[in-house]
Amino acid sequence: MKFLSKTVLILGAVAMIACGDKKEEKEDKITIGDGTSPQSQTEAATDKSASEMNSSDEDVVEVTIEGNDQMRFNKDEIKVKAGQTVRLTLKHVGEMEKTVMGHNWVLLTQGTVINEFGQKAVQAKDNDYIPEGTDAVIAHTKMIGGGEEVTIEFEAPEAGEYDFICSFPGHYSVMKGKFIVE
Ligand SMILES: [Cu+2]
């Protein structure tokens, strides 16, 4: 569905451009297109597929989050409902190697101090930067590099607000967000 949604968006944009008679108008349309960041388009597509998934299967919610070569996630908030199975896909939309710009998605238990966890994670290189034996992780993906993606499934924890991060060294200070269970 995401591919279809994107296709519709692209076709829509082409149609808009094609409708413009004057060169000026064309440029205007193109500017508008550029102003709409790929990020928000992706989010819209993701939201759509998520709600469609909800209508067909209330117990599973699909979430997609992207990481890039600029050390950023494209979302700083993810909302799910208590009791749902979360099917989360992390996509690395960059090109850089896992050893240089690796990303993972780590959901932390409430009360975990991000800085402290992040510092422990630095020492856990051999374990994909997840501290061995930690009880601070509810769910996590493996570490991936540019062009890769990974999907995990887990049960949403009890209602509340949780932090998610990328635990690659140094990334947690900007690659983080709120995971909200309603
Ligand atoms: Cu990262």
TrEMBL record:
GO function term, MF aspect, one: electron transfer activity
Translocase as UniProt keyword: no
Biased composition (Polar residues): 34-44
Xref: Gene3D superfamilies: Cupredoxins - blue copper proteins
Keywords assigned by UniProt, alphabetized: Copper, Electron transport, Metal-binding, Transport
CDD domains: Azurin
A Pfam family this chain is assigned to: Copper-bind
Domain of life: Bacteria
Region named Disordered: 25-59
InterPro entries: Azurin, BlueCu_1, BlueCu_1_BS, Cu-binding_ET, Cupredoxin
Domain spans labelled Blue (type 1) copper: 61-182
SUPFAM superfamilies: Cupredoxins (SSF49503)
NCBIfam families assigned: azurin (TIGR02695)
Protein name: Azurin
